[in-house]
Amino acid sequence: MKYKILLFDLDDTLLDFAANEADSLDKLFHSNGIALNKDILQLYHNINKQLWTDYENGRIPLTEVLNTRFSRTLNELGVTVDGSAWESQYRQHLGNGHQLIEGALEVCKILSKDHRLFVVTNGVTVTQMKRLQLAGLHDLFENIFTSESIGYQKPFEGFFDFVFEHIPTFNYKDTLIIGDSLSTDIKGGILAGIDTCWFNQKGQPEKEDIKATYTISDLKELYTI
Fold first, then answer.
1. What is the pLDDT of residue 95?
2. Any idea where the domains of the chain sit in the sequence?
3. Which one from 9, 11, 12, 16 is the annotated catalytic residue?
């Protein structure tokens, strides 16, 4: 690995967010007396995805994503709920989930011996910190950067400007961002002027307008970059 500064996305790069989310949603709906079937789940995913897209494109604040996604979902079913209260319950379940992507802990432990590791995530600060601690990853990173604490999100320039300014002796050519999202991690890295590594574990199709410097399907492939 020729790069000295490694910026890792968190969800679906180091932590298995999909598994964590599924378990947390099931517990949330069950505790509120609603059976979570595939139709309700798909409805939630559609609404949640659109809200996150709007947030990542700078159209709405993060608070709107978090405090309305459940109320909007249930409203479609003719049920009125307190979106903020549901979000608070969901955060409690989500914060306890720390399933790892295969090889994540081993790779981070090995790379941290000779490299400087940082987390760059669009997630909620308190939730991400807790999950990193529970997964045994937290102490392997020099700093944890979240969009909530910065006030900007990937892929926006403001996010990366803040990150670079808060990494002592930062150097563009020595820095690599690793993430699963072309639209936030890879696009953000390209716009910020650093090399990028797309973690394409699921074999997603490439996009002609967003080209990563490297593409891997297994985190252990980072050793050879």
1. 83
2. 5-16+100-224, 18-95
3. 9
